[in-house]
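thread from #wetlab-drylab

HS: before we spend reagent money on co-crystallization trials with pantoate, can we at least see a predicted complex? here's what I'd submit
DV: go for it
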Amino acid sequence: MNASASISKLATTIAQIRAETIAARRAGVKIGLVPTMGALHEGHLSLVRASKAECGLTVVSIFVNPTQFGPNEDFSKYPRTLDNDLKLLAACGAEVAFAPEASEMYRSDRSTTVDVGEVAEPLEGEFRPGHFRGVATVVLKLFNIVQPDVAFFGQKDFQQVQVVRRMVADLNVSVDVRACPIVREPDGLAMSSRNRYLSPAARRRALVLSRSLKRADELVRQGQCDAAVILAEMRAVIETAEDARIDYIALVDPETFRPAETIAGPTLAALAVKIENTRLIDNCLLSPRAPIL
Ligand code: PAF
């Protein structure tokens, strides 16, 4: 265990992190967990700040979880920037970082996984088979290891938050799940560890994601409630980037993820688009205009 003014405490084993959290729990300290895969940016730090505002001990896990990546995904090239992450966490006041090796997290003879069901099936679930099984399994393991009172997730991964909430409800996990707003660059690009893969020109083309969500929001505010019309306009904005490859553009119920045909209540607009081989996701909640009496 390592502690100094310039970096947060670093625990790399389950025994070390448990020693920290058991001591805190005995002292009556509320524990917040911010699960991450590292390569931290302002979006993650906003979760740390939310945890600090509510909890006496903030644990940030940094673990590039192999089981949530498909065979042709970016697991091996996913950015690993532990030294910088620890500096950012210390500057933010996070007390402990938990950065285990895969061999510490996963027994070689493991056989249990968590399948959450319907909410995990469409959108990301369809385009990344097995992804949410990996997420739900590692998040439950982190919850069992750290035993936080509260866990903080970003709404950029809106479906992930719903998957975690469903798992917590179905399996009686005693953790409050908080979803924090998406943090965007000044030009609208949602912050993501994967943005660093983009060349400067692709970074500019990637703005079509947030522009398309903005267009959907404008249409709904103007009273448009036909999902087909809104989806067509969103697609037209995305297609202004010549190399955009669309995995999905969807309008769905934010609880069930079933497709919406009309915008009659809160509706999630969600997209996944590859720009220059980097897969980006973004979303926003649309609220229909209140009826005029
Ligand atoms: O959102 C992420 O970074 C990951 O999916 C999570 C929640 C840390 C699980 O590996």
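DV: Residues 193-286 form a domain with the Pantoate--beta-alanine Ligase; Chain: A,domain 2 fold (CATH 3.30.1300.10).
HS: ok that's useful, forwarding to the group
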